[in-house]
């Protein structure tokens, strides 16, 4: 109950549910198993193990252990948000980099249509253009894979 009163949400609300389970006759392990079923995360598992350990030590040690666990969980939440922001920035960057060659070529064609046409009509221009398109597509696909949020954020 002390943790439920002293900590911030979401930990406090979850501990209130654990206290409710305990007050209705559930054993500590049962209450913690219910908690883990509601939130099957590595952090929650760490918290449950900490609670079981703290059940065998003094109240002060238990509260300090759980407060430290709360800080770790909040820090990991902040890190997850930062990762999501960086992944989103990466997704935008992949699109910009993929569009850059086409935009550059369009700009050249706008100011020097004859030179661009002559270049792409030559064998070197055709080979160079084909290689550039293939490399651009490969770069885009690789960039999409590298910035795929499902592959990066796995908590």
Task: Describe, in plain words, how this protein is organized in 3D.
This protein has 155 residues and is mainly α. Helices cover 85% and strands 0% of the residues. α4 (42-54) runs antiparallel to α5, α5 packs across α6 and α6 (113-121) packs across α7 (123-146). The radius of gyration is 28 Å and the shape is rod-shaped.
Q: Biggest sheet: strands, sense, closure?
A: none
Mean pLDDT: 86
Taken from the alpha-carbon principal axes, the silhouette is rod-shaped
Output the radius of gyration. 28 Å
- Unreliable stretches covering 5 or more consecutive residues: none
SS-based class: mainly alpha
Strand composition percent: under 5%
**What is the strand tally?**
0
Helix content: over 70%
Report the end-to-end length measured between terminal Cα atoms. Answer: 28 Å
- Number of helix segments? 8
Provide the succession of SSEs.
Answer: HHHHHHHH
Topology, element by element:
Layout: H1 2-6, H2 11-23, H3 28-38, H4 42-54, H5 59-111, H6 113-121, H7 123-146, H8 149-152
Helix pairs in contact: 2-3, 3-4, 4-5, 5-6, 5-7, 6-7
